[in-house]
What we know:
Strand content: 15-25%
CATH architecture: 3-Layer(aba) Sandwich
CATH topology: Rossmann fold
Number of strands: 10
Number of helices: 8
CATH class: Alpha Beta
Helix content: 25-40%
Structural class: alpha/beta
Order of helices and strands: EHEEHHEHHEEEHEHEHE
CATH superfamily: P-loop containing nucleotide triphosphate hydrolases
Oligomer: single chain
Amino acid sequence: MNLFITGTDTGVGKTYAATLLVRALRRAGLDTVAMKPICCGDRTDAETLHEACDREVELTTLNPVWYQTPASPYTAAIVENRAPDIAPIREAFKRLRAQYRSVIVEGVGGWMVPIDRDYFVADLAVEFGLPVAVVVRNQLGAINHALLTVRDIERRGLEFAGVILNNVDLPDEVAVTNRAMLEELLGCPALVEIKPGQTELTLAVA
Length: 206
């Protein structure tokens, strides 16, 4: 399984979902590793994924670009007086794809977060060419945010792999209907639904 994991917003649980997937795939026997092309602020997300991979790859390969400013990559680059540079990301991705059967890439922020003035997370996903899974926080507004993201993924010619529905809290009267509505409107079942506090996933891997 190879995936590019994006989210409907920042803080919807991309790292949490990616970590569960990486661990589940490795338990199932796949030589799966993660990639976090860009971190902004602290490096906790990349370090969490690094642990999920049993530190099998170098942290600087898993996370080739790190801005210490907690903002979008383009904003962080301006604040830190650094020219945005996609080259190390491309090189790290190429190396991981050549070495491993399964790579789970976690984007930064939401789908249209700017990496450069005219280059967005969506553009990076197009370059990578992997199926895209969308992490959706199960709350009011989830349907609108998910549909906007998925429609643009499809418009760009990428394969939509499915929704990862993240139940951060116990579902309320709105949240309990979101999965069924998303499956109906998107025409496919949810890829994964994560329960509050879940620590493991069980996946059927061919």
